[in-house]
Design goal:
2 copies of one chain form a homodimer.
Chain A lengths: L2 H18 L3 H10 L4 E2 H8 L3 H13 L3 E6 L2 E6 L4 H24 L1
Antiparallel strand pairs in A: 1-3, 2-3
Helix pairs in contact in A: 2-4
The structure holds a DNA duplex.
Chain lengths: ~110, ~110
DNA sequence: TGTCTTCATGGTCATATTGCAATATGACCT
DNA sequence: AGGTCATATTGCAATATGACCATGAAGACA
């Protein structure tokens, strides 16, 4: 395997995770799951989309390895598989803060 | 504005940033820019795609507020606008590590 | 002026994503 | 078995994305 090929698969794996987090509904879900595990029915209410749509978003998160499931009777509870999302969210907040400052600078100066 | 609308735009802004990082070429670019500012011609070589394709990726990163540009003669240098990407990458690595452990557990037992 | 380099943009095609409706699956209860 | 609730999956339409080619704009330089 060439170095370039290796590099590509390296970034592909990482980009897949970022991509899974790149949708507002999925971000909302992940954020809610930081508190506690939540069933699909409750997540569907939270997101406010069709149940089938939410189910698809959940499967995207699951395929990325971000969440895991637990069965309890007819219900399925989703929970975060990783606790490290703070770093991710902090990074995003930092970018948004910088963007805001830039906008203010453009208006003010 | 209702609470739900507010929440949506909250997550939309954050998801847009994650989405901008959700492509292997863009991740490769951002990673390279952690070292130093780089011109489009060099980034084009690095990524190994058409110059127009790389230019589009760069505009995605710029629109997300992740990078900024500096003109020098006919060249345009791109540089990171934020230094916080460590937290982002650490989070990704953490997820990948967890995923690897899960795969090993599935094989092993 | 003409040409070369560097980068961005419009056009076009192939593919992926997203959303909803409809249907299937699976568990539980009677 | 039949009924009901909670999820997953499939089909389809609309839209977004990503790649290339061709072209355009701007600076450097003879």
């Amino acid at each position: 395997m060439t170095m370039k090929t290796k590099k590509i698969s390296f970034y592909e794996r990482r980009a897949a995770i970022a991509k899974a987090l790149g949708h507002p509904s999925r971000l909302m879900i992940v954020d809610a799951l930081q508190e506690r595990e939540i069933c699909v029915c409750e997540l569907t209410e939270l997101v406010g989309a069709d149940q089938s749509t939410v189910s698809r978003h959940l499967s995207v998160l699951k395929n990325a390895g971000l969440v895991d499931t637990r069965k309890e009777g007819p219900m399925i509870f989703y929970r975060l598989r990783v606790k490290c999302l703070e770093g991710f969210f902090m990074c995003i907040e930092n970018v948004l803060k910088e963007n805001l400052e830039r906008e203010e600078a453009l208006v003010g100066g």
